[in-house]
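>> received
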Amino acid sequence: MEKILDVIDSIANQRGLNTQTVRDALKIAYINSAKRVLGQRLEFDAILDDEKKAYRLYQEIEVVANDDERLKTEEKYGVISLKEALKIDEEAEVGDELKKEIGLEAFGRTAAMALHHELERALQKVTENAVYENYKSKVGKLINGVVERIDGEENTYIEIGEVRAVLPKKNRIKGEKFKVGETIKTVVRRVTMNIKDGIKIELSRTAPKFLEELLRLEVPEIADGSITIEKCARIPGERAKVALLSHKAYVDPVGATVGSKGMRINAVGGELNGESIDAIDYSDRPEEFIARAMRPATVSKVICAEENKAIVMIESAQKAKAIGKAGVNIRLASMLTGYEIELQEIDGASKEAKSEDASVLSALFNS
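>> returned
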């Protein structure tokens, strides 16, 4: 195993792995190999020899009296007689712990096979951990991949870099179809790893984060932080609402996001299978935020009650807009603001009449 570290370092560079992490895994592999061959209860250590670029394997053994009974049993591998210990260390005494160098090659083919197996397993584990950590850090981030296959349940398997991920049918926008070989955009929704299944990466095109990442890609002001997406709510493939906040006085968050003639927002909607996107100004005042979230309906008044409930007063003529087709508008407004919204109608005609009466009285008093 001379200069094995050169080989390991080369493998680490080829796979994009941290060199020190691979070296640490190699050390554990040596120790585990010795335990498999000589005994699980024995203690070992592996120390790096920089000159030979290899690990030296040592057994941690207890110094015992020359007539100790353990020297005649299977436990002899964990102890050493005082007589033999003095050959290693002239100051050794009974009860001391010594490190005795051992060579696995002296234990034949079994030891060689054990070491080979442990090295392979160590490299595999380090590789899997590196991939896991890499994609774990990408949760909620936009990612491109190539459709590899679509199974009978319409789950889409996508190749992303060195791994294959899955876009479940439930995470796909209703009505969209993909073809094998097609490159598509998704966000990483979840990354898990276990002994049985290895690494599993779940993708999504229905998560609000997907819309946010597409807007970040399309709108430079969002990408550079001039505008932030404070809240986002979607009914995938139908409609979405995003609440935007500008951090620069001269930047209009809605105008910048929509773009000239709606080019930016329409480009994002096109990626979402025609999803309609409402861009609104965010407010930290709940009443104002809820009123804006109810657009395109015009709201007369908002009263926030306890337990995240809000009463939204509207004129009868605005009711259809407030609710939206199949209730989509009010559902999205509720999702966006976090409030359970209750509509309360105001009689528009009555309100108009009262306004006229007030004008007449004002004219009489001022005449």
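>> The longest helix spans residues 108-136.
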